[in-house]
Amino acid sequence: MLIAPSILSADFGDLLNDIHKTEEGGADYIHVDVMDGHFVPNISFGAPVMKCLTGRVSIPFDVHLMITDPMKYAKDFVTENTEFITFHREAVEDPMEVIDLIHSYGVKAGISIKPGTPTSALEGLFDKVDLILIMSVEPGFGGQKFMEDQLMKAVELSALKKEMGYDYIIEIDGGIGIGNIERVEAAGVEMAVAGSSVFKAEDPAEAVRMLKEK
Ligand code: DX5
Ligand code: ZN
Questions:
Q1: Terminal CA-to-CA distance of the chain, rounded, Å?
Q2: Best label site of 47, 54, 142, 207, fewest CB within 10 Å?
Q3: Ligand 1: which of 3, 9, 40, 62 to mutate, judged by most atoms within 8 Å of the beta carbon?
Q4: Distance from the CA of 159 to the center of ligand 1, in angstroms?
Q5: What fold, for 2-213?
Q6: Tens of pLDDT along 138-163?
Q7: What predicted TM-score, i.e. pTM, was given to this entire model?
């Protein structure tokens, strides 16, 4: 299981140090939650913060854009560390245009769906995206309760992937911790975001290690 700690729950006053702890624990990606106060009712941080981390972090960035206008801002998140840029299906009318734009930067494109959006909303995109991000909380805040019913989407996407030979990575985000990581993996999830369960833990390195070992 790939583990992507979400820096939304990190100590922004000591961000680099917090990230280094997760690297020490074997984190695979740094999950970068970008919120515009419009697509979601909260503002996190923008590209300048992420750019400061570039070159000082040894693992790649998994950028999660919770913003209304990914066409306008995706480019700002392209750095030497950026491997994935994920945007929300609900935010745009023409997802293919955003996918093409992200690919034009040489970055992998992900698409995310909120808890109320079915996987059928991704029809026609399954062979176009590199990653599908299932939200297991309403996007906007860290530390919320995991929505168990969202695991069905992982089961569906996993079966579809096998049947059709698609390449997308199945990622889940929201409320993930040691108490549910095994169920999440059993449902077919390949990459899990963990915010508060890692950064609010006494020992973030150990928290990542435990998630990876489970
Ligand atoms: C929620 C964000 C998540 C969040 C996860 O809108 O997309 O990435 O930081 O935090 P936890 O793991 O605390 O639910
Ligand atoms: Zn996220």
A1: 9
A2: 54
A3: 9
A4: 26
A5: TIM Barrel (3.20.20)
A6: 999 999 999 999 999 999 999 999 99
A7: 0.98
